[in-house]
């Protein structure tokens, strides 16, 4: 059995959630449940793989290992029934950087790129910073679940629309997209010749009762317009290693991204990212299952506690991953600033502000529950006490 109850002091490690806590929240005394990494110990098979490599005294220039692609192909087939040729897989130095690369490889300045907010905020940032235009196709809430709005999507597409960035599963809503929605999305994007970047970093954290559907698996046409990004980094709590990869079956699209990576000398990764990826995908299954079981229980506890004690806060039940999207509108704060101020100053909680995720984020906060149950209890108690 692995243990997830341990509380590990991350101060003095430059952990982002601590280092920038004061800048973001104006104080150091909030519980930092914002940045989407886990406070769990990075599993031993990862630490051991790195330690093993460190026994060799030379950390010289190192190529991608020969079995990198086959190990990934095997993992995505066994976990997601995604059959890919090994040459469709390539190392990517981070998914957010990969999004910025895709924006530059597939579009020109001034082109329109569609995102579906509320959504992981770098989706918008990489578009804006590269001087393309963000076009919103907002998600709609039905039965406390996000749904795509295809009518709105059709209306938003113009001849300047050159890319759509999909979050599958979805952050912050934890939605594991259903096959029909993805198929429909593929049909529309194929008709308009729009490639889809499907960010599937949360796929391996889909809870047991749901099934992750890779966008590329929904139809032949979907595969043909798909640029899938995946990573072991978030699932195995090693995002500091920058370990991720793309899967692009369509040779033309793949060449476009590869050309961009070559041109900018971005092909290489680092020794530890390679070693850790191989270790995660060959030794990590049991840890992954146990970690998900622990996170699921944390989510259940949060949901039950809110229902019983603070019914004004409505959580969206995540179908994947460790982020809980909290609808706080019934708390009745006059503005998002007031809501955040209450959480920070009164409850001493550092959650992500919903408006970071774009339209639809108003009156919401995002809570990270990948930490010891003791911390979750402390967070809920702080909230309850502040509200009383
Ligand atoms: C949807 C999504 N994509 C990408 C990332 C980060 O990817 P990377 O650390 O590889 O840049 C996150 C982290 O929260 C995420 O939620």
Short key terms for the protein model shown above:
388 residues, alpha/beta, Aspartate Aminotransferase, domain 1, Aspartate Aminotransferase, domain 2, 7-stranded mixed beta sheet, 40% helix, globular, binds pyridoxal-5'-phosphate
Layout of SSEs?
Blueprint: H1 16-19, H2 21-25, E1 31-32, H3 44-54, H4 68-80, E2 89-92, H5 95-106, E3 112-115, H6 122-129, E4 133-136, E5 140-142, E6 145-147, H7 150-156, E7 161-167, H8 179-191, E8 196-199, H9 220-225, E9 226-230, E10 244-247, H10 251-263, H11 271-283, H12 285-309, E11 314-316, E12 323-327, H13 336-346, E13 349-350, E14 352-353, E15 364-368, H14 373-387
Parallel strand pairs: 1-13, 3-4, 3-7, 7-8, 8-9
Antiparallel strand pairs: 2-10, 5-6, 9-10, 11-12, 12-15, 14-15
Helix pairs in contact: 3-11, 4-11, 5-6, 5-10, 12-14
The structure holds pyridoxal-5'-phosphate.
Pyridoxal-5'-phosphate is lined by residues 36, 94-96, 120, 167, 171, 199, 201, 231, 233-234, 239, 244.
């Amino acid at each position: 059995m692995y243990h997830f109850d341990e509380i590990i002091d991350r101060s003095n490690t430059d952990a982002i959630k601590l280092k920038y806590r004061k800048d973001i929240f104006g104080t150091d005394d909030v519980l930092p449940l914002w940045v989407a990494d886990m406070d769990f110990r990075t599993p031993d098979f990862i630490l051991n793989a790195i330690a093993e490599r460190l026994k060799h005294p030379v950390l010289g220039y190192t190529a991608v290992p020969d079995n990198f692609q086959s190990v990934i192909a095997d993992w995505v087939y066994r976990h997601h029934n995604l059959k890919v040729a090994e040459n469709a897989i390539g190392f990517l130095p981070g998914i957010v950087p990969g999004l910025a690369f895709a924006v530059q490889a597939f579009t020109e300045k001034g082109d329109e790129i569609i995102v579906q907010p509320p959504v992981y905020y770098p989706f918008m940032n990489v578009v804006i910073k590269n001087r393309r235009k963000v076009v919103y196709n907002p998600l709609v809430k039905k039965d406390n679940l996000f749904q795509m709005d295809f009518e709105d999507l059709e209306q938003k597409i113009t001849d300047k629309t050159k890319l759509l960035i999909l979050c599958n599963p979805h952050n912050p809503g934890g939605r594991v997209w259903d096959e029909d929605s993805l198929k429909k999305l593929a049909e529309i994007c194929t008709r308009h010749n729009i490639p889809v970047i499907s960010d599937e970093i949360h796929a391996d954290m889909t809870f047991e009762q749901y099934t992750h559907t890779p966008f590329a698996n929904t139809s032949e046409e979907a595969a043909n317009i798909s640029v899938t990004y995946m990573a072991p980094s978030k699932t195995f709590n090693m995002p500091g290693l920058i370990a991720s990869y793309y899967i692009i079956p369509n040779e033309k699209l793949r060449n476009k991204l590869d050309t961009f990576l070559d041109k900018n000398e971005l092909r290489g990764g680092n020794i530890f990212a390679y070693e850790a990826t191989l270790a995660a995908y060959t030794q990590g299954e049991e840890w992954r299952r146990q970690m998900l079981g622990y996170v699921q229980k944390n989510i259940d506890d949060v949901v039950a506690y809110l229902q019983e004690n603070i019914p004004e806060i409505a959580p969206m039940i995540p179908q994947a991953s460790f982020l809980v999207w909290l609808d706080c509108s019934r708390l009745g704060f006059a503005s998002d600033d007031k809501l955040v101020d209450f959480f920070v100053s009164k409850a001493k909680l550092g959650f992500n502000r919903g408006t970071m995720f774009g339209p639809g984020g108003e009156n919401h906060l995002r809570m990270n529950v990948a930490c010891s149950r003791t911390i979750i209890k402390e967070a809920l108690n702080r909230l309850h006490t502040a509200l009383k």
